[in-house]
């Protein structure tokens, strides 16, 4: 077993701490305590993931750095700093699989809310106004899912099941994909954007994807199309998005993630018509914490038994590539 496991937490510790403590010599650290407790640890469970604390606490001496870091999230951009990425002896794993179906359900809910203008209905209710009006349908509408990992695939499958036309966008173009049908690369992306009624961002945040939805991309989108982001806030040039929304080129946006979180109160996005904002909760469910700790415990057991770990992140690409070991 690891000589010492550090669990980074904020507020509440993870569930099943008794099981974790039986498998490893466990210490718990807040973000403020991490610089004192991380050096010399064999493993780190980052129960908090959207934080600079791990980067700031990482030991200067590689011999004092943990050999395994597990992120209790799908995104690992907070962990892709040079000292961790460039050390071949450090394995980074994540919680791939926990958020796939919950996020897909959330995306479907957002599409329905935008199409049916539920925010407008609730506002009319609040004002006690009786305003019958037509709404959009979603059957037969085209959705471009930008990001072809497990979350994007779960989104694609669910949207296909309700009658939407789905295609994908990724690093490599391919026809006949079982979930997306056609996957577009940069060569055909503009054509796909011009045809999509909804664009769903489900890509990880890497050097290649940061700011990928910029002013030219937004200008290439179909007039009146709606943008949904359940990936990372850094995928979008927010100033460009605000400009396009203000000009009325887009039909609306549903944003769950932002470049700065919490979203500052001064951001124009809060008050823009047709914009729905949620606080990075697309993948959260009432059973999320238990599912996250199950993934970690499986990997901790694998480490103790000398078996290959699951969800090993390609640190250069910034996401899990390939299939999991049995």
Features:
326 residues; alpha/beta; 5-stranded parallel beta sheet; 11 helices
Describe the structure.
This protein is an alpha/beta fold. Helices cover 30% and strands 17% of the residues. It has helices at 17-23, 34-37, 53-57, 82-85, 100-116, 118-126, 150-161, 189-195, 215-220, 238-246, 288-305, and strands spanning 5-8, 26-29, 43-46, 68-71, 91-93, 142-146, 165-169, 174-177, 181-184, 198-201, 226-229, 252-255, 275-277, 313-314, 319-320. α9 links the parallel β10 (198-201) and β11 (226-229). α5 crosses α7.
Show the helix and strand layout.
Blueprint: E1 5-8, H1 17-23, E2 26-29, H2 34-37, E3 43-46, H3 53-57, E4 68-71, H4 82-85, E5 91-93, H5 100-116, H6 118-126, E6 142-146, H7 150-161, E7 165-169, E8 174-177, E9 181-184, H8 189-195, E10 198-201, H9 215-220, E11 226-229, H10 238-246, E12 252-255, E13 275-277, H11 288-305, E14 313-314, E15 319-320
Parallel strand pairs: 1-2, 1-3, 3-4, 4-5, 6-7, 6-10, 7-9, 10-11, 11-12, 12-13
Antiparallel strand pairs: 8-9, 14-15
Helix pairs in contact: 5-7
Give the percentage of residues in beta strands. 15-25%
How many individual β-strands?
Answer: 15
**What would you call the structural class?**
alpha/beta
Distance between the termini: 20 Å
**Mean pLDDT over the full residue set:** 97
Radius of gyration: 21 Å
Strand order across the largest sheet: 8-9-7-6-10-11-12-13
General shape: globular
> Unreliable segments (pLDDT under 50, ≥5 consecutive)?
none
Provide the succession of SSEs: EHEHEHEHEHHEHEEEHEHEHEEHEE
SS element count, helices: 11
């Amino acid at each position: 077993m690891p000589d010492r496991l550090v669990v980074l937490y904020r507020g509440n510790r993870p569930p099943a701490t008794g099981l974790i403590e039986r498998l490893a010599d466990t210490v718990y650290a807040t973000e403020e305590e991490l610089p004192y407790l991380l050096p010399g640890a064999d493993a780190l469970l980052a129960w908090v993931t959207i934080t600079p604390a791990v980067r700031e606490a990482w030991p200067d001496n590689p011999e004092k750095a943990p050999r395994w870091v597990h992120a209790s999230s799908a995104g690992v951009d907070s962990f892709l700093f040079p000292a961790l990425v460039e050390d071949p002896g450090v394995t980074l794993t994540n919680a791939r699989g926990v958020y796939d179906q919950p996020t897909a359900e959330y995306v479907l809910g957002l599409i329905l809310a935008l199409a049916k203008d539920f925010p407008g209905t609730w506002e009319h209710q609040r004002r006690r106004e009786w305003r019958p009006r037509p709404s959009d349908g979603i059957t037969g509408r085209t959705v471009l899912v930008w990001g072809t990992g497990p979350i994007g695939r779960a989104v694609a499958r669910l949207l296909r099941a309700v009658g939407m036309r789905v295609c994908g966008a990724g690093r490599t173009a391919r026809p006949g994909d079982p979930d997306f049908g056609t996957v577009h690369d940069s060569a055909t992306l503009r054509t796909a954007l011009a045809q999509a009624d909804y664009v769903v961002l489900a890509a990880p945040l890497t050097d290649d994807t940061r700011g990928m939805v910029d002013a030219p991309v937004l200008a290439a989108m179909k007039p009146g199309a709606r943008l949904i982001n359940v990936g990372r806030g850094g995928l979008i040039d927010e100033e460009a998005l605000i400009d396009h929304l203000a000009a009325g080129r887009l039909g609306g946006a549903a944003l769950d993630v932002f470049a700065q979180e919490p979203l500052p109160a001064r951001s124009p996005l809060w008050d823009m018509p047709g914009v729905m904002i949620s606080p990075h909760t697309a993948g959260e469910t009432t059973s999320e914490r238990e599912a996250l700790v199950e993934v970690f415990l499986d990997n901790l057991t694998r480490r103790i038994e000398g078996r290959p770990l699951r969800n090993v992140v390609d640190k250069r690409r910034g996401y899990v590539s390939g299939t999991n070991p049995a």
